[in-house]
Design a protein that fits this description.
Layout lengths: L4 E7 L3 E7 L5 E8 L3 H4 L2 H15 L7 E8 L3 E2 L4 E5 L4 E5 L1 H9 L3 E5 H12 L8 E6 L3 E7 L2 E2 L32 H4 L1 H14 L16 H9 L3 H25 L3 E5 L7 H14 L2 H6 L1 E4 L6 H14 L2
Helix pairs in contact: 2-3, 4-11, 6-8, 7-8, 8-9
Length: 322
Amino acid sequence: MVDKWLVGVDLGGTTTKIAFLNWYGEIVHKWEIPTDVSDKGKHIIVHIAKSIDTMLAQLGHSKEMLLGIGLGAPGPVDVSRGIIFGAVNLGWENEYPLKDMLELETGLPVIAENDANCAALGEMWKGAGDGAKELVCVTLGTGVGGGIISNGHIVHGVNGAAGEIGHITVIPQGGALCNCGKTGCLETVASATGLVRMTKELLAKEDTPSSLRQKSLDKLTAKDVFDAAKVGDELAEKAVDQLAFYLGLALANLGNSLNPEYIVIGGGVSKAGNMLLEAIKSYFDQFAFPTVRTSTKLALATLGNDAGVIGAAWLAKHLLQR
């Protein structure tokens, strides 16, 4: 068994990442394909299956080389049934049987999970979590995702919605509207889009000199804000500090509730690096219970875009060990 491969699939709205990994979580080969969301997403699973077959043939192996498939998808997943509860960005408006469809197309055992949970498992297995069995992973990108691991297993909750860190309310009144329909969610202030929005608001209401005033506001990016902050731009520093405040507050409350060994911060926004991490940590230390402050470590994710496929492969391995 250890001589064969696991398959990790990270299904996204634009691209789908696929990898063959060995039993120990090391990537043997990885690639990606466009995610075809036409015709209400009916081609997605077929394309994944065909791509796996094609890559196997190119590498000179038969399907006998594969043990099973783990798949991470962007939405709430009922792991026991392998069903995703609607992923509109993929064209799936209602419940979609991910597990059954991919098993039908590949003839391999499949386990499906939420993509942020897969990223958390990846960081636990081979990344910044360093094997920790108690871990929270938060991903900062266009939105804010998260996964909670307790005793080495993902916490799902009663309906698969546990770990929705981005929808913790951090501004009880007067917060910005979130895509989920609530206001004041962490996602509205700690995501890339949230940082850009807060920066634009500061530019509009303050007279502070800033290099960002020379940029076209409709093209302003989170990277622009971080780059300006790194060279001492006062207004950019203020915007980043706002993000760090809200994220530090939310993570401290998670820490106070769960006391994980690690809180791992990943996603595109985390590329701001130690400057952002230290700012978040200062607020985390301010709001965390003393025991949590000294025992829960904050760390930047280390696996980048590979976290999802590695975590999905961990799921496949776990499925095969049952």
